[in-house]
Design a protein that fits this description.
Order of helices and strands: EHEHEHEEEHEEHHH
Helix content: 25-40%
Number of helices: 7
Largest sheet: 6 strands, mixed
Strand content: 15-25%
Distance between the termini: 34 Å
């Protein structure tokens, strides 16, 4: 098993695209990339801890390759927005790929370069590729939020503008 850490704005919205796919063994919402040990959600919301909201994905690379994770990741975000994602604004909602080894780094860099060269977006791709740092799981009520609080999750996601952006820029629906 390997781990991948992706920041894509609201971590609730970053769980569902990867949830229940073959080879995905687990997804944990949490925090990474900051300087405060064991941050809480309340601390994170202030934007002062340096952390990103992230998902840590445990996967079997023989069943679901890291390249496929990257491909799916890009299609969940606006990679040109350095101020957050959709209605979630602030440094804690920026996008980033946290790599665990040289192979993940190279694959992430290549995927970012391909996206940039594709001309899909007029603005530059600002998603960072950073070395993995300590991952802190978010509080239990954030785990599987889309299942525990389905109505609120769907309302929040709809209000965010994420699905409209995905439709306009990725799926063409």
């Amino acid at each position: 098993m390997e781990k991948a850490i992706f920041a894509g704005g609201c971590f609730w919205c970053m769980v569902t695209p990867f949830d229940e796919l073959p080879g995905i063994e687990g997804i944990i919402s949490g925090y990474s990339g900051g300087q405060v040990e064991n941050p809480t959600y309340e601390e994170l919301k202030t934007g002062t801890t340096g952390h990103y909201e992230v998902v840590e994905i445990t996967f079997d690379p023989q069943v679901f390759a890291y390249e496929r994770l990257l491909e799916l990741y890009w299609q969940q975000i606006d990679p040109t927005d350095d101020g957050g994602q959709f209605h979630d604004r602030g440094s804690q909602y920026r996008t980033a790929i946290f790599y665990h080894n040289e192979t993940q780094y190279q694959l992430a860099l290549e995927s970012k370069e391909r996206l940039s060269a594709s001309g899909k977006f007029k603005k530059p791709i600002v998603t960072e590729i950073l070395p993995a740092q300590t991952f802190y799981p978010a509080e239990e009520y954030h785990q599987d939020y889309h299942k525990k609080n389905e109505k609120h999750y769907k309302e929040d996601r709809e209000k965010s503008g994420r699905d409209e952006f995905i439709s306009q820029n990725w799926t063409g629906k």
